[in-house]
From TrEMBL:
Subunit organization: Heterotrimer of RecB, RecC and RecD. All subunits contribute to DNA-binding.
Top-level taxonomic group: Bacteria
HAMAP family named among the record's database cross-references: RecD
SUPFAM superfamilies hit by this protein: P-loop containing nucleoside triphosphate hydrolases
NCBIfam families: recD
Name of the protein: RecBCD enzyme subunit RecD
Additional remark text: In the RecBCD complex, RecB has a slow 3'-5' helicase, an exonuclease activity and loads RecA onto ssDNA, RecD has a fast 5'-3' helicase activity, while RecC stimulates the ATPase and processivity of the RecB helicase and contributes to recognition of the Chi site.
Amino acid sequence: MNPATVHALPQDAARSGVPHTIERLWQWADAGWLRRMDAAFAQWVAAADPHCHASLPLVVAILSALEGRGHSCVALPGLQAQLAALLDWPIDQQAQAALAWLKLQLPVHADGWQAVLRSPVIETATAAPPPAGHVDVAAAPMVLVSSAVHGPARLYLRRYYQFEQSTAQGLLGRVHGAALQAPATTACLPLPAADGAPEVDTARIAQILAQLFPVDAASADQAAAAPNWQKIACALALRQRLGVITGGPGTGKTYTAARLMAAALALAGHRADLRIRLAAPTGKAAARLSESLQLALQELPAAILADQALHQALLRIPAARTLHSLLGASPGTRALRHNAANPLALDWLIVDEASMVDLEMMANLLQALPPHAHLVLLGDKDQLDSVEAGAVLGDVCEGAQQGHYSAATMDYLERSCGERLPSEYGYQGAGAAQAAPALSQAIAMLRVSRRFGGMIGQLALAVQTNDAQRMGALMAQLQQQSSAQRAVFWKEPATAQDAQALAWGADGPHAASGYAELARHLQAMPAWPAAYQRPSTSAPDIEPAWQARHAHWVQQLLDALAHFRILCATRQGPWGVEGMNDLVIQSLREYGLPVKSQGWFAGRVVMVTRNDAALGIFNGDVGIALPAAHNRQQLRVYFPQASTAQPAPGAAAAEAEQTMRSIAVSRLQHAQTAFAMTVHKSQGSEFAHVMLCLPAYESPLLTRELLYTGLTRAKKHFSYVSPRVGAWQQAMGQSTLRTSGLVDLLYGTARS
Ligand SMILES: Nc1ncnc2c1ncn2[C@@H]1O[C@H](COP(=O)(O)OP(=O)(O)OP(=O)(O)O)[C@@H](O)[C@H]1O
C-alpha cells in the first residue's frame, strides 16, 4: 500500500470515498493482482480530478491493467460480464471477493457509464460537447469513444487511441490510394485515378504472373478446380500499395513473397534502384525470412531465373532486418529515427510474421512509410497475437476466409490471374447499397499447406475451427496407431514423471528426441588442449584442428537444441516455463552433469530477452552456454548460424571466435534459461519435436490460438501433457479475447 499518497488526496475527493478506493487498489497491487503502475495511474487521475466519480479510479486501473494484458482499450458495454475473464485474477477466495466487489462498482447501462466517465481527464471522441469542467482536451490522458445510439462504447489510454487511429488511416490510405506522390525512383506504382481507385497495367501484370505461376499439364486440372491463391495474392498486392498475405504454416507465404518481389521488379523494368526491403518483428524471424526467401528464389521458374538482370536484381535485395532496427529505434527511448517527417528510403517493404507486430509498432511503421511505398504483410492470422497490446493482423484479416471481394476486384483478378473466383468469395454484404470493404480488396488467404498433411496438420485444423467432433475422431485414430506410427503423443492427466520422461526422450513414440540427446553430447565434451585450459594473458591463436573439433561439438549441441523444445502456456508453476526448466535441470543432474539451479553452467540453454544491437543479438535468440575453445574456463553462449547474433564490432580476437557465433556470458545481461519457453516466445520458430504443457488450473489465457501456435511449431512430432483432464478441450473452446476498436475503424463493424 502507499498510504502517504492516499493522505495527499484533495479533501472533496475524500468526501466521495475515493481514498478508500485508492487504498484498495494499492492492496490489490500488493497482492499482485494489479501492477503498481495501474494503482499509481488511478491515483493520479483521482488527484487530477478532485470531483471524480468514486468508480472512476477503478475503471482507470482496469484500463491500465488491461493495456498490460494486450488490450488496446476497454469495451464498456458488457465489461461487468467479461471482467473475470479479462483480469484473470487468482481463484482464491480473497481475490474472487475483491473481483465481486469490483464488478458491483461498475455501471451496467449507458447513463451510469456517462456519469462515471464525466471527467476532464477523459476526452470524448465524438462531435458531442465536451463534459463540464473540461479544461484541456488535448492533454486528456484518456479518450472515450461514444456512439450516438448506444452511448459510451470504448475507453482508451490516449496513446492507444492514437495508435489505432493512425494504423487504420495508414492501412486504408494505402488501399484507397490517398495522398500518393511517387518519387522519381518508383515505376511500378499504381497511381490513383481521379475517383481514388487504383489504376494498374493489368495486361502487363497478367503477363508477368503467367510467367511466375506457369501451369504445367500435370496440374492443369487441379488448377482449373481450385483458385490459385498465391497468384491472387500477388495480383492484389501489385494492384495497390498494400497487400496482406495470410495463411497457416507451409501455405507458401514466403514462396509467394519471392514471386511478388520478382513481379515488382519485372513491372519496374528490373530497375536497379527499386528499393525492396525485408523486415520482421524479431531478429530470429528476420533471419528466417532471409533464409527461406533465398530458398524460394531458387525455386523461381526457369524462365525467370534465366533473365539475368532480374535474377541479379533479386539477389541484390538486402537481408531482412528487425522492424526496430529498420525504423531506427535506440535503446531506452520510444523515439524512432524514421517517422512521417523522415520516412524510410524504400519502395517496397515485405514484413514477415506480421501477427507478432503490435499496435504501436504498426502505427509507427505506417507513419514512417513513404506514401508511394508498397507494404506487404505476411503472417498467420490464427496465431497468437502480439505480446504487446493489439491484435493487428487478426483485426486486419477479419473476413479473410470469405474474401469479400468487390465485383471490380473479381473482374481484375479474372483479367490478371486468368481465373474467375467462385461467387462465394464475392462480397455478400447488405445489397448494392453497401460497398465491399476496401481493405478486403488487399487481402488474400493461402489455404493449402504444403508442410502439414498428417496428424499434426489435422489437429491444427480441428483446433483452428474448434471442431470437437473432428478432434474426437482424431483421438480415436490415435488410439489405433502403433506407437511407432504416431506423430502425436497425448497424455491427460499427466504426472510430473510423465513430463520428465517425455522431456528426456525416454518415453513417447519418438523416444530419443528429448533433452537426453543434448545431455549425451554434453557428456562427450572433448578434452581441451593444455594451452586452452585456463585464461591466457594474450589472446591465443587457436590451433585449427582443435578449433574444428570444438566447432563440431558445439554444432552437435546446437543441432540437438534445434530438434526439441518444451513449450508452456504459462511462465510460473510446475507446468509452466519455470517448473519445466527445473525438471530438465534435475534430469541433467541425475544424468551426472554438473548443472546448477541458478546462474551459468555448461549446457545451460538461454533465450535473449532484450535486443542488444551492439552485441548483435535480439530478443528471442536462443543459444547454449559452453566452454570457449580458447579458454576452458570461460563460458560463451553459442547461437545457431541462422541466428542474427553477430560478433560485436571491435570485439577482441579471442572474443569473437572466428567460426561460431558466440558471446561471453559476462556480456549477456538479459537472458533467461530456456529449456522450456512460452508458446508466445516460440512464434516464428519450428522444431522437429514440440512438447506442449498446459497447467493444472483453468485460465482464459488457455485458448485455441495458443494450442494452434504450439501445435504448428512442430514439424514432425508433437507431444502434449497436462495434469488436468479436459485442459485441451477447454482451451480449444476459448478464443483469445483482445479488446480493440480497429475492426470497427477498418470495417465499420463492432467487435470486442
Ligand atoms: N505453389 C507451390 N508449388 C510448389 N511448392 C510450393 C508452393 N508453395 C509453397 N511451396 C513449398 O512449400 C514449402 C512451404 O512454403 P513457404 O516456406 O513459402 O511457406 P510459409 O507459409 O512461408 O511457411 P512458414 O511461414 O510456416 O514458414 C516450401 O518448401 C515451398 O517451396
